[in-house]
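dumping this here before i forget
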Amino acid sequence: METRRLNYFIKIVESRSITAAARELGMAQPALSQQLGVLEHELRSTLFFRSRSGVTPTPAGLRLYERARRIVRDVASLERDVGDTMRSQVVTIGLVPSAMPTLGLALLRMVHKDMPSLRPQIIEAAGHALRDQLERGLLDIAVLPTSLASAQLQSRAVFRDRLYILSARGRAIDPEAPRDLAALPWIVTRAPNAVRNVLSAWFARHGLEPNVIAEVDAMPLVIDAVRADLGVTLLSSSAVPSGAIREELSATDLPGELLERTFMGCWRPDTAGEHIPMIVERIALIGSAHERDGKVPS
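structure:
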């Protein structure tokens, strides 16, 4: 039995839906159903009652849920505390897709230069999924929007960012005309998503809903679709690509404080080694450089 399947099972119980759990885990629903089937076969037990409204654990599923939570926690603690020397130096860092262009490469360079004894594992996933993994002890650090920070986590601000309407160069956009903005063909990430929530809230203030033509969770595909002028999207300045791609794009600034975001470096105070706050401090230095030097296409 693999601990990853126990993690999948825990997520399904807490989501009460295989589809919702798959979305938060960043998996296809059929793949998650297959993993659940393997687990039920291994345990020779039916773990869920299934209905149109979702799933609920059977008595066997409830027993497994309590045991699985302890097992996952203990395995994570074991890997941290008594792993071999090389493994004890692994630090697992989760970044939301919009923070990856700003922090990813710079973070690798920083660790390689200043903390050569550490071996970073960098994971990209949606903010809700990263917070969940961090709270379960599967990550050491997660960089999350402020809205996803939790009282159970230690955190500090690492950089500020602003959201822009990204469009193909040449498309006319009037930021002072909310009704016209709502009518634009929007390409967005699926909910739950912090940027999607900001977009919905901005239009809700004007009594409007955006014209969503596609939901895409892959950032490169969103940018390619915008470059092809299939639609527009809301994107943070940290995620605006550099290089030649910028020549094909325009970024329009929207009025309003909702478009300002702060990213937090988060970690669990009960499990963090002394090197974890040091890494978060270095992430903040990278973020400060982004705030000082970062630009978006005009």
